[in-house]
Amino acid sequence: MKIGCPKEIKPQEFRVGLTPHAAREAVQHGHRVVMETDAGLGAGFTDEDYTAAGADIAASAAEVFATADMIVKVKEPQPAERALLRAGQVLFTYLHLAPDPEQTHDLLAAGVTAIAYETVTDARGGLPLLAPMSEVAGRLAPQMGAWTLQKANGGRGVLMGGVPGVRPANVVIIGGGVVGTAAARVAVGMGANVTVLDRSVPRLSYLDDIFQGRLTTQYSSAAAIAELLPEADMVIGAVLIPGAAAPKLVTRAQLALMRPGAAIVDVAIDQGGCFETSHPTTHQDPIYTVDGILHYCVANMPGAVARTSTQALGNATMPFLLALADKGWRRACAEDPHLLAGLNTHAGRLTYAAVGAALNLPVVDPAEALRL
Ligand SMILES: NC(=O)C1=CN([C@@H]2O[C@H](COP(=O)(O)OP(=O)(O)OC[C@H]3O[C@@H](n4cnc5c(N)ncnc54)[C@H](O)[C@@H]3O)[C@@H](O)[C@H]2O)C=CC1
Ligand SMILES: CC(=O)C(=O)O
Ligand SMILES: [Mg+2]
């Protein structure tokens, strides 16, 4: 199979879909790998690193898309990339379709077989291709929130850890999954006073256990959130219902409960965000203010630490990538229900129920799509 990897074109996205290690592995499995020139530079990988691994270098994205059987990326295809996709081609990347009707329309119109990293599952109920980037985004969230809280950025001017004699910042984390746990670890490490809310009691027990009294857990309800907002300096949105649009847990009216200059970091923005007032921002212009509350809503936070993120993502995608290349997508998905869970579109049909529900579109069972 010919595997193609273009350079990412989303603003300030410096990750790349294939590491030289992954390229070498694919070549050793008998596949051809074509990298767009300079695709890896943002993550510190040169064209020479890829040619040493046995890959070919293409001069343009158009050449990569035109000749590859499978396109491997990081971010959802941008409009210019969507125009280059075609039926019979496999696209393996993050998609986040539920909040994105235009992209969904374009993937269906192209007829491409699109497998979303964020909905591939594992035997323990986890999301193995989302988890590494959630680890990164979670660790970044308090760091970005702390920066947002600085006076020069419009924030309340509160230091995360306080100082002797002055209270630390109050950080509220909604969602205690991979992002929430990683965010808690860093926020606790910075000395903040941290509360984590989740709907899963077992998850709260786990957090209670591992943090040994260094944070507070609370069952997530509208009332619990409303009670915590007036005291919060920072609220981190980290909920997920896999594949679905994020539930809106804080309304615009509730911003009035918060302290002026407090910071919202909505990590769940890639699924539409869990604050009514969230909309996606970029690393170039990450913050905006609504009713005196600062919002940081960057949908590709891990791109800020592209080298770490590319390596972590590459480790996680490699076995799935090799299965898709070695067996072809149909057999790979037929033999692995966890990979099949990643299938979001095929031959003009939507195959992921939560996306269909969010966008009010008909859905074909993925097992049925294998026969199309
Ligand atoms: N902005 C960015 O750059 C990035 C965003 N993400 C996003 O972060 C979000 C979280 O991802 P993960 O932590 O990996 O998911 P996860 O599945 O590990 O955790 C989500 C948690 O939310 C909880 N939850 C669901 N509904 C809730 C509610 N109403 N109140 C409180 N908790 C609730 C679940 O019980 C679960 O523990 C996803 O939308 C993911 O796509 C992940 C990586 C990068
Ligand atoms: C998960 C995701 O959307 C990202 O890493 O950008
Ligand atoms: Mg994202």
UniProtKB/TrEMBL annotation:
The protein's Enzyme Commission number: 1.4.1.1
SMART domains cross-referenced by the UniProt entry: AlaDh_PNT_C (SM01002), AlaDh_PNT_N (SM01003)
Gene3D superfamilies in the cross-refs: NAD(P)-binding Rossmann-like Domain
Enzyme class, spelled out: oxidoreductase
Entry keyword Oxidoreductase: yes
Keywords assigned: NAD, Oxidoreductase
Reaction catalysed by this enzyme: L-alanine + NAD(+) + H2O = pyruvate + NH4(+) + NADH + H(+)
Presence of keyword Oxidoreductase: yes
Alanine dehydrogenase/pyridine nucleotide transhydrogenase NAD(H)-binding domain boundaries: 149-297
InterPro entries to which the protein is assigned, alphabetical: Ala_DH, Ala_DH/PNT_CS2, AlaDH/PNT_N, AlaDH/PNT_NAD(H)-bd, NAD(P)-bd_dom_sf
NCBIfam families referenced in this protein's UniProt entry, alphabetically: alaDH
Family label: Belongs to the AlaDH/PNT family.
Protein name: Alanine dehydrogenase
Species for this entry: Ruixingdingia sedimenti
Gene of this entry: ald
